[in-house]
Amino acid sequence: MKKIAVISAILEEPEKSQHKFNETISSFKGIIKGRMGIPCETEGVSVICIVVVGNLDDINNLTGKLGNIPNVLVKTSISKKEL
């Protein structure tokens, strides 16, 4: 069963974590429907929102991998509705 989710991430030191973050996202391109990134240069952070559609294991796997990257904070909202 598939669900839709939004993964929100804050990269606190984008210059150090952006490459690994993008590499990880690329490895899950099959479940990613859209991505919006906002560089907040004055604040020294980047804010990224990713919309995914997939099974819970894939969504949680992606969230976990992103959350394990140093200086990256991640939260995920998962729809209760099954697709």
Automatic annotation (TrEMBL):
Span of the signal peptide: none
UniProt xrefs under InterPro entries: Acetolactate_synth/TF_NikR_C, ACT-like_dom_sf, FeFe-hyd_TM1266
UniProt xrefs under SUPFAM superfamilies: ACT-like (SSF55021)
UniProt name for this protein: Iron-only hydrogenase system regulator
Organism per entry: Metaclostridioides mangenotii
Lineage summary: Bacteria, Bacillati, Bacillota, Clostridia, Peptostreptococcales
